[in-house]
From TrEMBL, chain A:
This is Carbohydrate ABC transporter permease. One of its GO terms (cellular component) is plasma membrane. It is found in: Cell membrane. Pfam families: BPD_transp_1 (PF00528). InterPro entries: MetI-like (IPR000515), MetI-like_sf (IPR035906). PROSITE patterns: ABC_TM1 (PS50928). It is a multi-pass membrane protein. GO terms for biological process: transmembrane transport. Belongs to the binding-protein-dependent transport system permease family. The chain crosses the membrane at residues 26-48, 94-113, 125-147, 159-180, 201-226, 263-285. Residues 90-285 form the ABC transmembrane type-1 domain.
Automatic annotation (TrEMBL), chain B:
This is Sugar ABC transporter permease. It comes from the Bacteria. Residues 72-285 form the ABC transmembrane type-1 domain. Pfam families: BPD_transp_1. Keywords: Cell membrane, Membrane, Transmembrane, Transmembrane helix, Transport. CDD domains: TM_PBP2. Gene3D superfamilies: MetI-like (1.10.3720.10).
Length: 300, 295
């Protein structure tokens, strides 16, 4: 990691207990345990209640398992309810994530790198506009974007979700910082002398050096598109194009509405299925997002 | 000296092959809608006469619209309470994790951050059910302890929302602060130790000044987020019967004007008014934050 030299020091120089290597505190750990509980209790509640039958849901304590462990049955029913619409929503979400977050990562990486390494005409204005864009509230744009897209007859198609997801000013900023830190100019000059083209230099040399930053940007773009709710809510009226978030909310409204067909257990199980993949990705890639973000904060 | 040395350097356009694609999409999904919103806000769709240019009339209406300012005040109260609480909690967590005095530091860092990965819709559904009297924890606790917790009561619903938003984002802000703390050079701690600084003194003299920039950034993002509040109240709405109305936040108001009322012009006006207010406040916070840094 690029910041490693700041934090890792020869142990020999340190006394046994000091400001940087103090004694562990059980009291502080227990106190911070409250934080852990705060973060975990709702997730535990979700898991426990996703494993209950409709009848068990309404009787018994919320944080205790029900009489029967119905998780597998609930999962099966979630995927088969209403001709398997949930599976369709899962597929839509994957499509939006792969195309939207993938494209966003590609565009942000190329642009952040280009801004950091080339003094092209218009660079200053470019950078100022993008930084200004971070401060513009995204939802101020949502209604006009909808109107514009409906003029172009793009609403109710996957494009309405994918195209706006392609822009990540924060991702661009992160790659810009990361490039300044980890792609040495001398390396690029050497490659140019060898006669390599700019794109080729980027693909064969720079992209590898930027990998941890790219993974970080990809991860946050994946979360943003996986969790996207407002945009699909306004852009889509056909349930066949819904992502999981909008679909789940529709089920919830159906469950608590008037002529209610109570499918609370499906809402809960569906919620659980929605968060499992994204949480798994975060845990598996934690090395990247933790180091990638700290690179961003050096300049930030 | 050869003459070409005096020529100005040739313009280097190569950067555009990297930055061009982003710029093209950016114009399409950012600049164009913004310009379109400005354009829309100058017109009114009338029953008689159709689409008519009205100048700044929509803005005049917005400035005296009680429903807009009702929502505005609500998010203002929300952000004045929720943002400080969340950021202080995040800072405490970051300092505790950075202090190296915790057992299983990595676990704390990961788990406290985890709610950020949970979609807002799922977070709200989850908390909404927990709050609810159908089969929620609130009902269980009331039964168990004889209390009268009603998170959906009109006087409590804002606090209930604040709790959901705090739960979602406290870990994300913790991570930002933690990353800033990690950039403090080791030599600074060494010097502090020689000076005999201990515990909270180190926090006050070294750590807090080091995270000031991160705090300013986190505050700005949180303010923007609060003014945009939409997902959480909108998903909570069907669960909290009749407590959350259609203009609960300015953003919900703009949304409902568009999609329930077909008042696109006025909706665009409100989006712009809120955008300007947000940008101004974010700018002022940034100015104040950096000025203090200079002192």
């Amino acid at each position: 990691m690029s910041t490693a030299h700041r934090t890792i020091h020869p142990r020999a120089r340190r006394p046994r207990h000091s400001i940087t290597r103090p004694r562990k505190s059980l009291a502080l750990t227990v106190l911070m345990g409250l934080f852990l509980a705060y973060a975990l209790v709702p997730l535990a509640w979700l898991f426990i209640n996703a494993s209950k039958t409709q009848a068990d849901l309404f009787s018994g304590f919320g944080l205790a398992f029900g009489d029967s462990f119905a998780l597998w049955d609930n999962i099966a029913r979630t995927f088969t309810y209403d001709d398997g619409i949930f599976l369709r929503w899962l597929g839509n979400t994957l499509l939006y994530v792969v195309a939207g977050a993938g494209g966003a990562t590609l565009l942000a990486t190329l642009a952040g790198y280009g801004l950091a390494k080339y003094a092209f005409p218009g660079r200053k204005a470019y950078f100022a506009v993008i930084l200004g864009a971070i401060a513009v509230p995204g939802t101020a744009l949502a209604v006009p974007t909808f109107l514009l897209f409906s003029e172009l007859e793009l609403t109710n198609t996957p494009w309405a979700i994918i195209v706006p997801s392609l822009i990540s000013p924060f991702g661009l900023y992160l790659i810009w910082v990361y490039t300044l830190e980890s792609v040495p100019k001398e390396l690029l000059e050497a490659a140019r002398i060898d006669g390599a083209g700019e794109m080729r230099i980027f693909c064969t040399i720079s992209a590898k050096l930027l990998a941890p930053g790219i993974v970080t940007v990809a991860l946050f773009a994946v979360v943003a598109t996986w969790n996207n709710y407002f945009l699909p809510l306004i852009m889509l009226s056909d349930p066949n194009w819904y992502p999981l978030t909008v679909g789940l909310n529709q089920w919830s409204e159906q469950a608590s509405g008037v002529a209610a067909e109570p499918i609370f257990n499906l809402v809960l199980t569906g919620s659980l299925i929605t968060i499992v993949p994204i949480v798994a990705v975060f845990i598996l890639l934690q090395r990247f997002w933790q180091s990638g973000l700290s690179a961003g904060s050096v300049k930030g | 000296m050869p003459p070409h040395a005096f020529r100005p350097p040739r313009r280097d356009w190569r950067g555009w092959q990297f930055t061009g694609p982003f710029a093209a999409v950016f114009v399409f999904v950012f600049i164009a809608p913004l310009a379109y919103a400005l354009w829309l806000s100058l017109f009114q769709n009338r029953l008689v006469g159709g689409n008519a240019f009205v100048g700044l009339e929509n803005y005049q209406t917005a400035l005296t619209d009680p429903q807009l300012w009702d929502g505005f005040l609500r998010v203002l109260v929300f952000l004045l309470v929720q943002v400080p609480v969340m950021l202080v909690l995040a800072l405490i967590a970051a300092l505790a994790i950075d202090s190296a005095r915790l057992y299983a530091t990595g676990l704390f860092r990961l788990v406290i951050f985890l709610p950020y990965a949970v979609p807002a819709v799922v977070a709200v559904l989850m908390w909404g059910f927990i709050y609810g009297d159908h089969f929620g924890l609130a009902a269980d606790v009331n039964e168990l302890l004889g209390t009268d917790l009603r998170p959906f009561a009109p006087s409590w619903v804002l606090a209930s929302l604040g709790n959901i938003v705090t739960w979602e984002y406290v870990g994300y802000n913790m991570l930002i602060f933690y990353s800033a703390l990690k950039t403090i050079p080791y030599e600074l701690y060494e010097a502090a130790e020689i000076d005999g600084a201990r515990g909270l003194q180190v926090v006050k003299a070294i750590k807090l000044p080091a995270v000031r920039g991160a705090v300013v950034i986190a505050t700005i993002f949180s303010i923007i987020g609060s003014f945009q509040l939409f997902n959480e109240p909108n998903v909570l709405k069907p669960l909290a019967n009749n407590v959350i109305n259609s203009y609960f936040t300015p953003n919900m108001y703009a949304y409902n004007l568009s999609f329930a009322g077909q008042q696109y012009n006025y909706s665009a006006t409100i989006a712009i008014v809120m955008g300007v207010i947000t940008a101004v406040i974010a700018y002022v916070v940034q100015l104040r934050g950096t000025r203090r840094e200079d002192r």
